[in-house]
Amino acid sequence: MRSSLSTIKSLVYATIVRPQGLLNDESSRNDVKLSNLIFILWAVLGSIEASIEDFVEYYFITFPIYILLFFGILKYILPVIYQSVGRIWKGNSSIVEMRMAVALSLVPQIIFSPILLTTLVFWDEFSTSNRGLSYLVNLWSFILLILYIKKVQGFSNQLAILNVVLPALVGVVLVYLLVSLT
Q1: Cα–Cα distance, 9 to 161 (Å, whole number)
Q2: How many angstroms from the chain centroid is the CA of residue 59?
Q3: DSSP the chain
Q4: What letters, b where the CB count within 10 A reaches 16 and e where it falls short, cover 37-72?
Q5: Three-point CA angle 48, 44, 101, nearest 5°
Q6: Over the stretch 111-155, which tens digit does the pLDDT of each residue have?
Q7: Rounded to 5 degrees, what angle do the CA atoms 163, 169, 170 make?
Q8: pLDDT, tens digit, for every residue of 23-81?
Q9: Which H, E and C letters describe 98-121, residue by residue?
């Protein structure tokens, strides 16, 4: 228990103070248990927030659906997409390393979820500041995702940004086409 707690403390500290230092050694790149823990925490906290925001009266129905969607998309779909797109530019990450990069980018959202949930539930009049904090945390996670993809793929800053943005643009175009066809 002591080592798990110290690992979490050092992870939070490194995410806040020195995110570039993470993923330097082989063991941290392939820590499947830690990445699973991060994915599960993020899926549960994100599901609670999404359920409260959208479907208060159907909370017990939507909560497990959100958990499965969040966990499945983040753990299995996004890392494969990022790894596949990165192969275009000769990226050299394994799927386990890519999952760890995606998981570590979620740490700021896990850290600030209790604050965001508290303001969402108890202080509805502070929803504007809640939205602002949420944007900052999401931006922080996005920047960390780019840093970690850069590290595990062995890319420059520009290729790492392209590795993240290109799949997002393709997704937006696909959604637009699907919506416009219906």
Answers
A1: 28
A2: 23
A3: -HHHHHHHHHHHHHHHH-GGGTT-SHHHHT-HHHHHHHHHHHHHHHHHHHHHHH-GGGHHHHHHHHHHHHHHIIIIIHHHHHHHHHHHTT----HHHHHHHHHHHTHHHHHHHHHHHHHHHH-GGGHHHHHHHHHHHHHHHHHHHHHHHHHHHT--HHHHHHHHHHHHHHHHHHHHHHHHH-
A4: bbbebbbbbbbbbbbeeeeeeeeeebbeebbeebbe
A5: 130
A6: 888 877 777 666 655 556 667 777 888 899 899 999 999 999 999
A7: 95
A8: 666 555 667 777 777 777 777 777 666 656 555 555 566 667 767 777 777 788 889 99
A9: HHHHHHHHCHHHHHHHHHHHHHHH
- Token pair for residue 129? 């500041």
The residue with tokens 């969607």 is 69
